[in-house]
Amino acid sequence: MYIDAHLDLAFQLSKQLNPALPLEELRERAVALEYSDIPLVSFEELRRGGVGLCFATLFACPYHREFSPWGYTDWQGAAQQAQTQLEQYLRWQDAGLVRILLNQEDVQDHFKKYDPQNHPKDSKNILGIILLMEGADPIRKPDDLEKWFKAGVRMIGPAWEKTRYAGGTDQPGPLTGMGHDLLIGMQEMGIILDVSHMDDLAFWEAIDLQPKVIASHANARALVPTNRHLSDEMLHALHGRGGTLGLVPFNKFLQPDWDRPMPRLELAVLRRHAEHCANILGWDHMGIGSDFDGGLGLNEIPLGFSSAADFIRFGEVAPESESAGILGDNWKRWLEGNF
Ligand SMILES: [Zn+2]
């Protein structure tokens, strides 16, 4: 079973792109809606690609004048978006499209039931999901953490841009007072810390408060120098806590001068990030967090992929003996030890 450590499945509904529809239909809709990104993800494509488990986000999008004028401006707005997405996952679960995994027993059972040889349309394989809150603004205050835990959230990335909890991508800053309390609550409840998007200042505080840590989707800052990615020191810290990293195959995150509408990059560029990070983390702590539905499309990912169904090609960014690991076995082992 392959594992994708980052997909924004329920967020797609806010773009009228329900992944329960066939990919062809999603692509037609994207054209009709004049979206520039060509969709890559549907439940069917994931099943065809052998992806049996993903970390699926509750992602509340903040207000931006151009690209999200409907975004949130306060915690209530953020909470509403996250709640709507949570309900969407529950509806998909009722419809037999996903299974929300809440504990080790669920994970073990899911691996037992999944048939890696069987991916056709009528397959009984259901996508297992672990709920990851990306950006903690939907949490009104740290005392409310338990409410979200009870609702199924098992991983939290406190930042996206800066949130009420932590400095984030392009908006530097430390953990706030609330952020500090949130991390202590996460540690007490065993909620996994996702350091993706965290600014350095917040990262270094957080990682000492909750050492059960992953980076669901991030690359090497040594190759793309922005605070969106992990410095070598941060990778060392992740390694020291037994964390695992999901590489993101977004061209803009692979090569600093890449931008739309430049041609797609070769997969070898992702391999350079893989090798750099593996030098510090070890190949056994490397995985993929595709973010294939997170504000990017077919023209923004390396060559060799036509949809999420080509997930197996991520195996090529590791030495042959490490392919199975990076495709899912490493996340599986990490979950067995930490979830
Ligand atoms: Zn993200």
Descriptors for this entry?
339 residues; alpha/beta; binds zinc ion; TIM Barrel; single chain; 10 helices
Describe the structure.
34% of the residues lie in helices and 15% in strands. It is an alpha/beta fold and 339 residues long. It has one domain (2-338): Metal-dependent hydrolases (TIM Barrel), CATH 3.20.20. The strands form 2 sheets. Strands 1, 2, 3, 4, 5, 8, 9, 10 and 11 form a 9-stranded parallel sheet that branches. The chain is globular, with a radius of gyration of 18 Å. Residues 134, 196-197, 217, 291, 294 line the site of zinc ion.
Top CATH class: Alpha Beta
Q: What's the CATH architecture name? A: Alpha-Beta Barrel
Number of domains: 1
Q: Note the gap between the termini.
A: 17 Å
Overall mean confidence score, pLDDT = 96
Estimate the strand proportion.
Answer: 15-25%
Shape: globular
Largest sheet: number of strands, sense, barrel closure = 9 strands, parallel
**What is the CA-based Rg, rounded?**
18 Å
CATH superfamily: Metal-dependent hydrolases
Given the helix and strand composition, which structural class is it? alpha/beta
Count of extended strands: 11
Tell me the series of helices and strands, N- to C-terminal: EHHEHEHEHEEEHEHEHEHEH
Low-confidence stretches: none
**Which small-molecule ligands are present, each listed once?**
zinc ion
Number of helices: 10
Protein topology:
Blueprint lengths: L1 E6 L15 H10 L10 H6 L2 E9 L15 H20 L3 E3 L3 H10 L13 E8 L10 H6 L2 E5 L8 E3 L2 E5 L1 H13 L2 E3 L5 H10 L3 E3 L16 H9 L3 E4 L19 H15 L4 E3 L34 H16 L1
Parallel strand pairs: 1-2, 2-4, 3-4, 4-5, 5-8, 8-9, 9-10, 10-11
Antiparallel strand pairs: 6-7
Bound molecules: zinc ion.
